[in-house]
Amino acid sequence: MSKSVSLKFINNAGTVTANISMLSFKEEDTFIIYTPQLDISGYGNTYAEALTSFEQSLEMFLDYTTNKQTLYKVLSDLGWTLAKGTEKKPKKISAPLLSQLITKNDYLADLLNNQSLQTSNKEVLIPV
Question: What's the CA gap between 93 and 107, in Å, rounded?
Fold first, then answer.
Protein backbone atom coordinates (compact mmCIF):
# COMPACT_ATOMS: atom_id res chain seq x y z
CA MET A 1 0.00 0.00 0.00
CA SER A 2 2.14 2.84 -1.17
CA LYS A 3 0.12 5.99 -1.12
CA SER A 4 1.93 9.27 -0.94
CA VAL A 5 1.76 11.25 2.25
CA SER A 6 2.15 14.97 2.36
CA LEU A 7 3.06 16.78 5.51
CA LYS A 8 4.17 20.35 5.57
CA PHE A 9 5.85 21.55 8.72
CA ILE A 10 7.43 24.97 8.44
CA ASN A 11 8.78 27.31 11.07
CA ASN A 12 10.15 30.84 10.82
CA ALA A 13 13.69 29.67 10.14
CA GLY A 14 12.71 27.58 7.11
CA THR A 15 12.76 23.92 6.24
CA VAL A 16 14.82 21.22 4.61
CA THR A 17 13.53 18.10 2.92
CA ALA A 18 14.32 14.58 4.08
CA ASN A 19 13.20 11.17 2.87
CA ILE A 20 11.90 8.53 5.24
CA SER A 21 10.74 4.97 4.69
CA MET A 22 7.22 3.99 5.69
CA LEU A 23 6.39 0.38 6.42
CA SER A 24 2.73 -0.58 6.39
CA PHE A 25 1.28 -3.86 7.59
CA LYS A 26 -1.74 -5.35 9.27
CA GLU A 27 -1.81 -6.98 12.72
CA GLU A 28 -5.08 -8.77 13.31
CA ASP A 29 -7.68 -6.13 12.30
CA THR A 30 -5.44 -3.08 12.73
CA PHE A 31 -3.51 -1.32 9.97
CA ILE A 32 -0.17 0.09 11.10
CA ILE A 33 2.23 2.49 9.40
CA TYR A 34 5.70 2.77 10.93
CA THR A 35 8.83 4.74 10.10
CA PRO A 36 11.93 3.32 11.76
CA GLN A 37 13.96 6.44 10.92
CA LEU A 38 11.84 8.46 13.37
CA ASP A 39 10.43 5.56 15.42
CA ILE A 40 6.91 6.90 14.81
CA SER A 41 3.79 4.94 13.96
CA GLY A 42 0.12 5.42 13.25
CA TYR A 43 -2.71 2.93 13.30
CA GLY A 44 -6.38 2.56 12.44
CA ASN A 45 -9.16 0.25 11.34
CA THR A 46 -8.40 1.10 7.70
CA TYR A 47 -5.25 2.08 5.83
CA ALA A 48 -6.62 5.63 5.47
CA GLU A 49 -7.16 5.90 9.24
CA ALA A 50 -3.63 4.60 9.85
CA LEU A 51 -2.24 7.16 7.40
CA THR A 52 -4.09 10.00 9.14
CA SER A 53 -2.86 8.76 12.53
CA PHE A 54 0.70 8.54 11.16
CA GLU A 55 0.56 12.11 9.81
CA GLN A 56 -0.73 13.37 13.16
CA SER A 57 2.03 11.52 15.05
CA LEU A 58 4.68 12.93 12.72
CA GLU A 59 3.34 16.45 13.06
CA MET A 60 3.21 16.15 16.87
CA PHE A 61 6.78 14.82 16.92
CA LEU A 62 8.08 17.73 14.84
CA ASP A 63 6.04 20.29 16.76
CA TYR A 64 7.14 18.99 20.17
CA THR A 65 10.84 18.60 19.37
CA THR A 66 10.96 21.97 17.63
CA ASN A 67 9.26 23.76 20.53
CA LYS A 68 11.58 22.04 23.04
CA GLN A 69 14.56 22.77 20.76
CA THR A 70 15.57 19.10 20.84
CA LEU A 71 14.86 18.17 17.22
CA TYR A 72 18.48 17.94 16.07
CA LYS A 73 19.56 16.01 19.16
CA VAL A 74 16.70 13.54 18.72
CA LEU A 75 17.46 13.13 15.00
CA SER A 76 21.14 12.64 15.78
CA ASP A 77 20.28 10.05 18.45
CA LEU A 78 18.16 8.24 15.83
CA GLY A 79 21.16 8.02 13.48
CA TRP A 80 20.45 10.93 11.16
CA THR A 81 23.27 12.81 9.40
CA LEU A 82 23.06 16.56 9.95
CA ALA A 83 25.27 18.78 7.79
CA LYS A 84 25.55 22.51 8.30
CA GLY A 85 24.83 24.89 5.49
CA THR A 86 24.08 28.51 4.81
CA GLU A 87 20.84 30.47 4.72
CA LYS A 88 20.60 30.17 0.96
CA LYS A 89 21.51 26.48 1.08
CA PRO A 90 20.05 25.12 4.30
CA LYS A 91 21.35 22.22 6.27
CA LYS A 92 21.32 18.85 4.62
CA ILE A 93 19.57 16.23 6.67
CA SER A 94 19.73 12.55 5.78
CA ALA A 95 17.81 9.74 7.41
CA PRO A 96 19.69 6.54 8.17
CA LEU A 97 19.15 3.62 5.79
CA LEU A 98 17.02 0.70 6.92
CA SER A 99 20.08 -1.53 6.61
CA GLN A 100 21.84 0.68 9.19
CA LEU A 101 18.88 0.60 11.58
CA ILE A 102 18.16 -3.12 11.54
CA THR A 103 21.13 -3.95 13.78
CA LYS A 104 20.06 -1.41 16.40
CA ASN A 105 16.28 -1.82 16.29
CA ASP A 106 14.91 -5.22 17.37
CA TYR A 107 11.34 -4.17 16.49
CA LEU A 108 12.41 -3.35 12.93
CA ALA A 109 14.28 -6.64 12.60
CA ASP A 110 11.18 -8.51 13.80
CA LEU A 111 8.96 -6.63 11.34
CA LEU A 112 11.24 -7.32 8.40
CA ASN A 113 11.57 -10.99 9.31
CA ASN A 114 8.00 -11.81 10.35
CA GLN A 115 5.53 -9.43 8.69
CA SER A 116 4.23 -9.06 5.20
CA LEU A 117 5.19 -5.43 4.60
CA GLN A 118 4.41 -2.82 2.02
CA THR A 119 7.04 -0.09 1.80
CA SER A 120 6.99 3.42 0.45
CA ASN A 121 9.11 6.51 0.79
CA LYS A 122 7.93 9.87 1.99
CA GLU A 123 9.48 13.25 1.65
CA VAL A 124 9.09 15.32 4.81
CA LEU A 125 9.99 18.91 5.54
CA ILE A 126 12.14 19.27 8.64
CA PRO A 127 12.35 22.70 10.30
CA VAL A 128 15.82 24.21 10.20
Answer: 24
